[in-house]
């Protein structure tokens, strides 16, 4: 019994602080201590400056090497690719215009903030470095799959490989990870003052980003959510982690790598799915509902899933 309690205590220690920080952000926004303009500016700051700094300096200063992590990266990529046709099959009964938002909401996770935060809480700097590398690989696929989906299901969207390549190459998160890997490979030595400044910037990333996500949540959407929103959320929180963990087991991943794979797979739907749905003519209301539902229930599914991994795969 003590072992089981310790296992669930560990799982909650990973997920609960993240969820409570989201609730703090939600509460501060409701009492007007976090304005919409502040959240917009802070979100841009995180995406363009502090999160790239977090990724760069964490990978640069860690023992993680791309060549050592290929089983994790390949398992994550293959597992993610497999979830897309599964989500497409589940979306078949929906109206044609709703399918793109449903499918993207069902497979596209919030890796950059919640996934990284869970990984850091569970395994510290080494887990964060592994999660960052995995995030880079999966994010590239996310962008390709999402644009292709809206090109198929929306008349407003026009697919362009050239634009997609530019978007990926200009993504500050991917750029930061690539620069960190190249810097490690060539043996670059940075002055301590630069490293310390980068670490200062990095340290504000996750708390600020989580507060912004919480402030952006609209839980009133839960009352207006359709069956499709709940179905997509269930797919994201239950089916996607099972598929990726199964692939990870086939690749023989170690305990920490498998847990990192699960935590990123179990992350709720990314806010980017709403932005892309609105920009490319998808059902943005459905996308927003999926984000709200999956974020709310991810604390339960991620905690239980991590506890089960600890029990059955010690």
Automatic annotation (TrEMBL):
Location, primary (coarse class): membrane
Annotated GO biological process: transmembrane transport
Key word Membrane present: yes
Membrane-protein topology: Multi-pass membrane protein
Membrane-crossing residue ranges in chain numbering: 12-33, 45-64, 70-90, 102-120, 132-153, 173-194, 200-222, 234-253, 259-279, 286-309
PANTHER family in the cross-refs: AUXIN EFFLUX CARRIER FAMILY PROTEIN (PTHR36838)
Family: Belongs to the auxin efflux carrier (TC 2.A.69) family.
UniProt name for this protein: AEC family transporter
Annotated organism of origin: Microbulbifer hydrolyticus
Phylogenetic lineage: Bacteria, Pseudomonadati, Pseudomonadota, Gammaproteobacteria, Cellvibrionales
């Amino acid at each position: 019994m003590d072992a089981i309690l310790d296992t669930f205590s560990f799982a909650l220690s990973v997920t609960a602080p993240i969820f409570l920080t989201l609730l703090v952000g939600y509460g501060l926004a409701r009492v007007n201590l976090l304005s919409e303009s502040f959240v917009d500016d802070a979100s841009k700051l995180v995406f363009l400056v502090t999160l790239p700094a977090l990724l760069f300096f964490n990978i640069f200063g860690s023992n993680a090497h791309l060549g050592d992590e290929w089983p994790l990266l390949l398992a994550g990529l293959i597992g993610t690719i497999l979830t897309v046709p599964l989500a497409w099959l589940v979306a078949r009964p929906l109206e044609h215009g709703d399918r793109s938002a449903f499918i993207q909401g069902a497979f596209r996770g919030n890796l950059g903030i919640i996934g990284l935060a869970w990984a850091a809480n569970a395994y510290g700097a080494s887990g964060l470095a592994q999660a960052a590398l995995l995030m880079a690989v999966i994010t590239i696929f996310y962008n390709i799959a999402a644009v292709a989906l809206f090109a198929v299901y929306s008349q407003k969207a026009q697919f362009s490989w050239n634009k997609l390549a530019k978007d990926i190459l200009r993504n500050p998160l991917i750029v930061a990870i690539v620069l960190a890997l190249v810097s490690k490979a060539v043996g670059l030595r940075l002055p301590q003052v630069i490293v310390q400044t980068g670490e200062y910037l990095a340290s504000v990333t996750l708390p600020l980003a989580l507060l912004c996500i919480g402030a952006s949540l609209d839980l009133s959407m839960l009352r207006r959510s359709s069956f499709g929103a709940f179905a997509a959320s269930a797919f994201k929180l239950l089916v996607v982690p099972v598929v990726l963990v199964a692939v990870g087991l086939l690749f023989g991943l170690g305990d920490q790598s498998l847990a990192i794979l699960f935590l990123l797979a179990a992350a709720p739907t990314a806010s980017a799915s709403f932005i892309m749905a609105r920009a490319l003519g998808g059902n943005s209301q459905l996308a927003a509902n999926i984000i709200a539902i999956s974020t709310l229930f991810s604390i339960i599914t991620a905690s239980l899933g991590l506890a089960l991994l600890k029990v059955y795969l010690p």
